[in-house]
């Protein structure tokens, strides 16, 4: 746990406590945890995940139990401001990942990548090696394993002596692995990065900065994969707006 790090400043947004930090502050907290050999788990939430957490109690417990809970979606940041619980900025999981990789390369920390398909994983590792020369990759494994294989996967990470573990898997698999098996991995920082491996591998294009600044990264992704993501985003965004409206009305009653 985050025993020796600074006092957490948090905001309550739609029944979830979120850490009020910038990207740089989140990176600094994780770096400090590694230096002090203290475990810190990271949870990231966007509008879709907040909606899903309302009906999936295991996912809610896994995310809310993390040592650092971050607003990965700009819509969550906007909601926090409307609710009078303003968060300083969006902390995208991939931005935290890139910041931590840079620090790991500079400080000689060992990293482990768990997730994606083998082909994607190999391309991602090549790109990471190009961006961060000297990065010590303790190990890597695809994210396709059963619940029964999870203990062995965690032991493999421990045997690799990883300081930081990045989980490139979908929800709720990554959150449940982080909660149940995170301690067994022995890693000091455990961060679920979702589809970030696909982005680094060139499988998916990340939205340009303008789209991200205006909270439209979800739309950019939907345009790339309209059949798969379009209906999902439409449904979850409507549900998220309904949750926000209900909370705003409750605050004025």
UniProtKB/TrEMBL annotation:
<dbReference type="InterPro" id="IPR004629">
    <property type="entry name" value="WecG_TagA_CpsF"/>
</dbReference>
<keyword id="KW-0808">Transferase</keyword>
<protein>
    <recommendedName>
        <fullName>UDP-N-acetyl-D-mannosamine transferase</fullName>
    </recommendedName>
</protein>
<keyword id="KW-0328">Glycosyltransferase</keyword>
<dbReference type="Pfam" id="PF03808">
    <property type="entry name" value="Glyco_tran_WecG"/>
</dbReference>
């Amino acid at each position: 746990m985050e025993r020796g790090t600074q006092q957490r400043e948090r905001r309550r947004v739609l029944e979830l406590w979120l850490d009020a930090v910038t990207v740089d502050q989140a990176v600094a907290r994780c770096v400090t945890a590694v230096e002090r050999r203290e475990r810190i788990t990271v949870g990231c939430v966007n509008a879709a995940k907040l909606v899903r957490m309302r009906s999936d109690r295991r996912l809610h417990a896994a995310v809310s139990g993390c040592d650092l809970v971050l607003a990965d979606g700009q819509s969550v940041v906007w909601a926090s401001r409307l609710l009078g619980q303003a968060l300083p900025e969006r902390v995208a999981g991939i931005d935290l990942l890139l910041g931590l990789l840079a620090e790991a390369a500079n400080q000689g920390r060992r990293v482990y990548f768990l997730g994606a398909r083998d082909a994607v994983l190999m391309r991602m590792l090549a790109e990471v090696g190009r961006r961060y020369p000297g990065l010590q990759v303790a190990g890597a494994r695809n994210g396709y394993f059963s619940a029964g294989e999870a203990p062995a996967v965690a032991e493999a990470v421990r045997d690799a002596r990883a300081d930081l573990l990045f989980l490139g898997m979908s929800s709720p698999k990554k959150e449940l692995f982080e909660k149940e098996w995170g301690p067994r991995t022995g890693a000091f920082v455990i961060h679920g990065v979702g589809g970030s491996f696909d982005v680094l591998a060139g499988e998916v294009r990340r939205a340009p900065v303008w789209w991200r600044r205006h909270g439209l990264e979800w739309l950019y992704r939907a345009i790339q994969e309209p059949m798969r993501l379009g209906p999902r985003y439409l449904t979850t965004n409507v549900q998220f707006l309904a949750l926000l409206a209900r909370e705003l009305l409750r605050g004025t009653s």
